[in-house]
Amino acid sequence: MTIGVDIRHLTSPHYSGVQHYTVELLRCLFREDPSIHWVLFASGTQKTLKNLPVFLEKNVELAIVRLPNKLQNLALMCGKTLESFSKNPIDIWFFPNQNIVRTRLPFVLTVHDVSFKIFPEFFTWKSRLWHRATRFEKLLKDARTLLAVSESTKRDVAGMYNIPEAKICVTHLGVSTDFSAHALPSDKSYLRAHKIWSPYFLTLATQEPRKNLESMIEAFEQFKTETHAKIRLVLAGPRGWKNEHVRARIGRSPFASDIQSIGYVKEEHRPALYRGATAFLFPSFYEGFGLPVLEALACGTPVMTSPVSSIPEIAKNAAIYVDPFSLHDITEAMKILTQNNEIRASFKEKGPRIAQKFTWQKTAKMTLEALKNAAQK
C-alpha cells in the first residue's frame, strides 16, 4: 500500500501547531507499519525547500517539485493532479492540513479548526481569500474520511457543513515526552540566554487576534496595579496577521518594561519556558485543539485558559477557566495563580497525569486505521 502525504506546509521556517502535528504524526506513522510506502509531496523554491524536515526511514520517498507554491497552486487549479508528480502509483492521499489540492484519488483530510468560518473578522483579506481558494467545503464533501483533532472540531464541522458524524474520526493531538515536569540543568542556561528571569507569566501563541493577547496585557496591567507583584509577562510566539495591535499595546503600557516579547521559540526550548513559568496564560477565543495548553499541563505548569471550543476537553479540571471577554476574570485568575499555593500544587499534580493520556503513538494508530479503512471503501 502506498500513501501520499501533502507536506507543502512544512517549507515554512517557523512551525505552528499544524506543522508540529504533521511532523510528530508522520514520524510515528512511518514506524507504525513498515510495510506501507509513503510518498511525501512538497513544492517550493530552493530556499524554502531547505526547511523541510529530514525523514530517514526506508519506506519514505520524496516527490519534490522545485516550483514556487503560488505557481504550483495555479497548476493544480488548472487541472494538474498531485499524483502526477509521483514516480510510483499512490493508493490514497493523506492531507494533514487544508490546502489547494486536486486529485482523482481517495483522500483523508485532517480538520484542525474552523476559526476562519466562526471568526472571519480575525483574519486578513488575504487569508480569507486563501481559505476560499482551497474550496474547503468541497474538500469536506469529497474526502473519504475526515480526521478532527477534537470532539469540539467534529461538532463544528458536522453542524456547520452538514457532514455526517460517522464520516468524522476524532484523533486528538499528542505531546512529546520532552514536555515533562522534570527540570533539566539546561533550563536555566536557556532562560538566561534569552534574559528571562523568574518569576514570570508565560503565554505561547502566534500573535493574532484570536489569541486575545491585548486583553491579557490589559489584565496584567490591572494585576500589577492592584498587587504590586514583582512578576513579568513573557509573550512567546511568532508575529501573525494583525499583530501590530499587540505591539502597539505593549508600547503604550505603563508596565512595558515588565512585558517581554521574545518571538518564535524552537520546540526544543519550549519545555524550559513552561517549566520556569509561574503560570501559563491562554485566554483564547477559540481553539481547534489547544496544543500549548497540553504542553503546559505536561510540564506541571499551572494554567489559566478559556472554557471555549476544545480547551475543556483537553485541560479538564487541571486549569482555571476564565471568560475571555472579562478583564476582571483574567486579573483574578492571575491573583489566584500567584497567591493560592494549594491550587497551584493541585494543578501541578493533575496536569502531567492528564497530559500523559495524549500521545503521538495513539494519534498515529488511529490515523493509520482511518487511512486503511478509507482505502478499502
Keywords:
single chain, 377 residues, alpha/beta, Rossmann fold, 2 domains, 7-stranded parallel beta sheet, 6-stranded parallel beta sheet, 16 helices, globular
Count of runs of 4 or more consecutive helical residues: 16
What is the CATH level 1 assignment of the largest domain? Alpha Beta
Structural class call reads: alpha/beta
Largest β-sheet summary: 7 strands, parallel
The rounded distance between the terminal residues' Cα atoms is 14 Å
Tally of separate domains: 2
State which percent range the strand residues make up: 15-25%
In what order do the strands lie side by side in the largest sheet? 3-2-1-4-5-6-7
The name of the CATH architecture of the largest domain is 3-Layer(aba) Sandwich
The helix content is: 40-55%
- Give a count of the beta strands, DSSP E runs of length 2 or more: 13
Order of helices and strands: EHEHEHEEHHHEHEHEHEHEHEHEHEHHH
The CATH topology of the largest domain comes to: Rossmann fold
Low-confidence parts lasting 5 or more residues at pLDDT below 50? none
Shape: globular
Q: Mean of residue pLDDT? A: 92
Describe the structure.
This protein is an alpha/beta fold and 377 residues long. The chain contains 16 helices and 13 strands. The strands form 2 sheets. Strands 3-2-1-4-5-6-7 form a 7-stranded parallel beta sheet, sandwiched between helices. It has a 6-stranded parallel beta sheet with strand order 10-9-8-11-12-13, sandwiched between helices. The protein is globular. The model has no long low-confidence stretch (mean pLDDT 92).
